[in-house]
Amino acid sequence: MLILCEKPSVAKDFAAALGASKKIGYYRTDDTIITYCVGHLFELCPPETYNNVYKQWVLADLPICVPAFKYHMNDSTAEQAIIVLKLLKEQCHDEVLIATDAGREGELIARIALKEAGIADIRRFKRFWVSEALTPDVILQGIAAAKPLSDYNALSEQGFARQHADWLVGINMTRYMSIGNPPPPFSVGRVQTAVLAAIRFRNEAIKNFIPVPYKELSASVTSDTGTTIQALLENPKTGKTSFFSGDDEYLHTAVTACNDKPVNVVDVEVKEKCSKPEKLLNITGLQKAAFKRFGYKPEETLNLAQSLYETHKCLSYPRTPSRVMGDNNVELFRKMFNLLYNEYALSSYCDVSLITADNKHIFNSSKLEDHHALIPLDKLPSGAKEKERNVYTIVLESFFIVCMPDYIYTEKSFRFHCSTYVFISTVREVLHYGWRNAVEYQNEGEDPEIPCSDDFNENSCSITGLTILEKHTEPKKHFALDSLLAFMEHPHGDTGQKLAGLGTPATRADIIKILFSRNYLVETKKKLFVTDRGRYLVEQLLQHDLLKKLCDVSHTTEWEQHLTEDPQAFFNYICSYVTECVTSSASRPAFQNAPLGICPLCGKGVFETKTGYGCEGYKDTPKCQLYIGKTIAGAAVSAAEATLLLIGQKTSVKHCKNKEGKAFDTFFVLEGGKVLFTYL
Backbone phi, then psi, for 604, in 5-degree steps? Predict the structure, then answer.
């Protein structure tokens, strides 16, 4: 039997379970060969592979729609690809077990390898489909339960349709939006452009937001026990507590009628509530937490987690979308718990009895996707770097917190009647602090400002003070990297409806990285802003009915749903859409060069040239002197970094050399139109 895994570490787990010995590029027993991919061994060929004419970007050549998609080996993994193809061709007449990750991308990786090996007959092929931690028992059970590979043909069709559609959109729309415009090209993608547009819409909404003043009437309600809680006057027109222009008379009469008056009637609604600890982390959750706590960018967090997984062997596979373990992983979880229990004080708050298969908050195979949630698999080695330690600690805390008792409380909602006026308030009486004994209260789904009170007597209370609060409506906050990840994970449409996620947990960091590398985004004080270049692209797309669909998050997620329901129809739709876009004269943008930013010296646009970034004011008399070279002291300056310099920010650390060839590290800053060094 030949077993094809997705990554070397999984092949190693199979080898341990089956007692196989290591060879070059595979493992072997007397009757079984275990080999592995290294992620995607093959990628789609560029357009010029199909026709050399596509080397030149010409509008008349669009759309580029190929009759059959071709692949070529990734240079970095070509050696392993050759081994995999050789083994597949040799063993295809025996039983073959596909054991790539249990998901659409894993299925695609395997099917492309089969395609490149020239294998069409898959009757002898079976599918190992397990998302749980690959202990020996789980592997043996999964092999025994393997189903025919043909049962997963629909998933394979989805994978190919998504990959081919994204290629068509990226190749055609990038060329369409770039031809006739100075370089660099305007990169367009099915997901990345929708994310960029969402950030641009948020930026514009905040910029154009006009605060509206409103008032609230806050009452101090004191019971005969001496305990005071705060309540707000209810607006009888809306049922809310805000009062806008025209409601002043009602507020002032309430102050006169209710100050220092007893409460006539109190309506009380009591609900017992239970707040479970946060679930285990997936990669998106880890990236959000690492940014919030340490300021790490998503790509950096992914790389650190990958190092903990591959190099230090102390973290489970990081690129996981799941937040639970499998039903069969109880013993693995308990083993890790026992290993780490005495190492960390946080564990003392845990309830070991919660580590059971009946606890679906932790163990739930029906909720697994591709891989189980992130957990520690060993103690952190002493040689780990500080940033690796920080990321490991986040996962470790999540691991312990998930098996702590629930936070249980009673929530009382009051409606205090004073004369004809109603004041509303909510207080909380804690029954059991549970996990909140150990961690700071951070549940976003509940109001952290609800006061706790266990000695307020609502049956005998009076209003002892009234204050009119002057407030203003506030806009939404700018996206930061953590909130952008949250938005991509759970986007909402214009009417608030929940939509399918943008990208996957494994690709979101790459999508954000692309937006930065294309000079579409900059980050200032942890806030994300679309650059002039990014804004220009979005505005050009929005001017045309066909093109603006690329900016619509709702439309993008509808495509994802369409893909799941009927892959071939989805692909046909994308082909038609791309063709209509690039052949419709009505949708062709009126191009103009988009500046990288605004010159701080003269206020004119700064544009990219062959050797650097210069102000268009160089034509003036006297000419503007601002110029930023693409190479300074041996270090490259990207367009995105030039944009940062123009808004007063510094670059990342630059590894430079002086005239004598001596190396030094510095930041670049822009002062007086000149690039200066700021030493570390």
Answer: -90, 175
Angle at 250 between CA 247 and CA 255, to 5 degrees: 130
Q: Is 190 within 8 Å of 169 (Cβ atoms)?
A: yes
CATH architecture of 163-207+478-587: Orthogonal Bundle (1.10)
Domain 283-401 is of which CATH architecture? Orthogonal Bundle (1.10)
The answer to whether 186 and 537 have CB atoms below 8 angstroms apart is yes
- CA 478, CA 207: separation in Å to the nearest integer? 10
If phi over 0 gives left and psi between -120 and 50 gives alpha, with beta otherwise, what is residue 517?
alpha
Interstrand relation of 2-5 and 33-36 (parallel, antiparallel or unpaired)? parallel
Query: What stretch of H or E contains 221?
Result: strand 213-223
639, 646 contact by CB (below 8 A): no
Q: Is the pLDDT of residue 302 over 50?
A: yes
Annotate 73-91 with three-state secondary structure: ECHHHHHHHHHHHHHHHHH
Residue type, 245: S
pLDDT tens, 263-285? 998 999 999 999 999 999 999 99
Q: Apex CA 634: angle with CA 628 and CA 636, to 5°?
A: 50
Q: Where in the chain do CATH 1.10.290.10 domains reside?
A: 283-401
Burial label for 396, CB within 10 Å (0-12, 13-18, 19+), is buried
Phi, psi of 333, deg, nearest 5: -60, -45
Please list the residue range(s) of the chain that carry CATH number 1.10.460.10.
163-207+478-587
Contact at 8 Å (CB) between 673 and 603?
A: no
Decide if 263 contacts 418 (C-beta within 8 A). yes
Strands 265-275 and 407-418: antiparallel
**What is d(CA 469, CA 587) in angstroms, rounded to the nearest whole number?**
51
Question: What is the C-alpha to C-alpha distance for residues 15 and 100, in angstroms, rounded to an integer?
Answer: 15
Pick left, alpha or beta for residue 288 (phi over 0 → left; psi -120 to 50 → alpha; otherwise beta): alpha
Place of tokens 């999964």: 142
Topology adopted by domain 2-145: Rossmann fold (3.40.50)
Q: What is the DSSP letter of 502?
A: S
In the chain, residues under CATH classification 2.70.20.10 are 213-276+407-472
Residue 15: C-alpha distances to residues 9, 23, 492, 665 (Å): 10, 11, 44, 46
Q: Which of 674, 649, 652, 646 is nearest to 665 (CA)?
A: 652
Non-local (6+) Cβ contacts of 379 within 8 A are: 314, 339, 340, 343
Beta bridge partners of 275: 407
Residues paired with residue 291 on neighbouring β-strands, in sequence order: none
d(C-alpha 655, C-alpha 644), whole Å = 18
- Which residue carries 């007449």 as its tokens? 93
Residue 630 backbone phi and psi in degrees, to 5 = -75, -20
Pick the CATH number of 213-276+407-472 from 2.70.20.10, 3.90.940.20, 1.20.1270.10, 2.160.20.80: 2.70.20.10
Q: Is the separation of the CB atoms in 606 and 598 below 8 Å?
A: yes
Mean pLDDT of 65-69: 92
User: HEC states along 263-291?
Assistant: CCEEEEEEEEEEECCCCCCCHHHHHHHHH
Strands (E), 12-139: 21-22, 26-28, 33-36, 42-44, 71-73, 96-99, 125-127
- Give mean pLDDT, residues 168-180: 92
Pairing of strands 663-671, 21-22: unpaired
Out of 152-156, 192-196, 517-521, 618-622, pick the least confident: 618-622
396-422 confidence digits (pLDDT tens): 999 999 999 999 999 999 999 999 999
Q: How far apart are CA 641 and CA 668, in angstroms?
A: 9
